[in-house]
Each structure stands twice: as structure tokens, then as C-alpha cells.
Amino acid sequence: MTTQQPSATARHYRQDDLRRKIDEALDRLYPGHTTLTTDDLHGVDEFHTGGHAATRELAEHLELRAGLRVLDVGSGLGGPARHLAQHAGTDVTGVDLTEEYVDVARRRTDRVGLADRARFQQGDVTALPFPQASFDRAWMLHVGMNIEDKARLFTEISRVLTDNSLFIVYDVMLLSDPTLVSYPLPWASEPEHSFLARPEEYRSLLRKSGFDIVAEHDHRSQAVQSLRDAGDAHHQNSTPHNPAGGDTPPAPISVAMGTDASTKIAKALQNIEEGLLAPTEMICRLR
Ligand SMILES: C[S@@+](CC[C@H](N)C(=O)[O-])C[C@H]1O[C@@H](n2cnc3c(N)ncnc32)[C@H](O)[C@@H]1O
């Protein structure tokens, strides 16, 4: 991978003043709130199809118990990591390329009192800043679509895990001709910055990196429902404030998707409904 791609990716995700926009979205969701728990934040901090329902389901597949060290690969705004820290009592480390996301993740985690169990650092997941065998579990939620060199990604993840560790990949995977896929999408505005791969490619690269694939789940129906809900929420949130359209206040997670959030949500839904893309979970165990 060239050094150019990570900065194009970080530029795609970066928003101006994301922290303030999230606070405004929370004010709309919980008018007059003084304290918010981690459970109140689901609508604004889970940046993958299926949202919190998917996070909960995947977490169950990680066979967690208190004290395990978990790596969240591409941790975004920190919602999935906070869920693991809060509900499973694990010690979570999140790594993400986008500085602004790391900053939001840290501040939110601090606000809900989980900073001793969930920490975040800026970094590239294809060159993880940890010694070998540092973690007992790992998961990666909707990040591989941004990574061209998946062989290096999976080799890095296997390096930092202890033997027999579970690792869950939950990515949007390619089922058909890539030229038919419509953009912009939540992870890339143009095809040049999108690195979709087929399930066969994932399986092959994971096996070469030392993982056995123990189960696989197709999350398309959950994704379709969540994208419809996100589209409706975005529309409802925009309409009363500014019926004429234009500079509308965004709905919860679409805050992180920028001004063309509704198009990105609609295109993601369209590609899934047309059978071109499928959010897919692969549960892997390091040999
Ligand atoms: C669609 S978001 C998913 C975030 C989070 N996993 C979640 O589900 O809420 C993709 C994330 O991957 C991060 N990312 C993309 N390429 C990366 C890289 N090479 N290294 C680290 N993070 C990366 C982005 O900054 C972004 O936060």
C-alpha cells in the first residue's frame, strides 16, 4: 500500500468540527440531558450497517469474559469498543487512522467513565503499533473496504494476537462485478478509494495469515433494515428544521458521513438490495 491511500481515507472520514456536530445531534436526541450513558450514544457512535444490533450480536460471538485484552481494529468513534468495555468488562484498545475520530472516541469514553477500560490511539492498522501477542481477541467492523493490502492487514492482526484467539471480521463484501457498484458510499466517495473484496478473497487471505474460519454469517437483512431506518431518521431529522432542504441538520450516525449522508445511505442500500454487496461476518480463530 502506498502512503497516499491512508491520507485519502482519513480525508474522507474527517469532518469539520465533528465533536460539536455530535453534541448537537445528542441534544436533539436527548433535549436537556445532563449525563449520558454509553447506551445513550448508540445512535451516534456505531459506524457500520446493522448499528448496535450488529455490535451486540458480534460481541456474543467473541466469547468474552472480564479481563480479556481486545483489539478494535479501526475503532472509529469508539461505540463498539465502549460496548465491549461496558458489557463484557474487557480491556479494549482501539486503533484508528482518523485523528478526529480518535479524539471524539477518547472524549466520549471519558464522559461515560470508561477511560480505564477503553483507550484509543491513532495508527494505521496495516502497521499496528503493538508487540506480538498483545491481545486475546480482535474485531474489525467495516474497515477492510478502506484497506488495499488486506494480506498485510491480516498478517499484522495475527501477529498481535495470542494463539487460539478469536478474530471477527465484519465487512461489506463484493458479490458481483465491481463496476456495477454505485457511489458515493459511507466508506468511500469514489471507487478509487474503495477496496471491496469477495468473500473468497477474504477467506484465502485469512487462512494464509494463520486463521481458520469457524463460521460465517450474512447480515444483509439486518443491514437493509438499519439502512432504511437511518435514511428515514435522516429525512425526519432534516425536514422539520429546514423544509426547503439545503443546509439541514443531520440525523444521528449520518453526522459522521458529511453533507451527502443521505446519498451514501441510499447507495449502500441500493447496492445491497441489488445483490452487489453483502455485509458479511467471518468468525476466525488463530491456529
Ligand atoms: C466505516 S468506519 C467504522 C468504524 C468502527 N469500526 C465502527 O464500526 O463504528 C471505518 C473506520 O476505519 C478507519 N480506517 C480506515 N483505514 C484505516 C487504516 N488504514 N488504519 C486505521 N484505521 C483505518 C477509518 O478512519 C474509520 O474510522
Short characterization:
Pathway: Lipid metabolism; Phospholipid metabolism. This protein is an alpha/beta fold and 287 residues long.
Description:
This protein is an alpha/beta fold and 287 residues long. The protein has a single domain (4-221, 268-286), classed as Vaccinia Virus protein VP39 (Rossmann fold), CATH 3.40.50. Helix content is 39%, strand content 19%. The chain has ten helices and seven strands. Strands 3-2-1-4-5-7-6 form a seven-stranded mixed sheet, with helices on both faces. β2 (91-96), α6 and β3 form a beta-alpha-beta unit. α7 (150-160) crosses α8 (199-208). It is globular and about 50 Å long. The two termini are 26 Å apart. Residues 239-251 have low confidence and may be disordered. S-adenosylmethionine binds next to α1, α5 and β2. Keywords: Methyltransferase, Transferase. It comes from Streptomyces sp. R35. This is Cyclopropane-fatty-acyl-phospholipid synthase family protein.
Distance between the termini: 26 Å
The succession of helices and strands, N to C, reads HHHHEHEHEEHEHEHHE
Extended strand count = 7
CATH level 1 name:
Alpha Beta
What ligands can be seen in this structure? S-adenosylmethionine
Shape descriptor: globular
What is the spatial order of strands in the main beta sheet? Answer: 3-2-1-4-5-7-6
Reported by name, the CATH topology is: Rossmann fold
**Low-confidence parts lasting 5 or more residues at pLDDT below 50?**
239-251
Task: Give keywords.
single chain; globular; binds S-adenosylmethionine; Rossmann fold; 287 residues; 7-stranded mixed sheet; alpha/beta; 39% helix; 10 helices
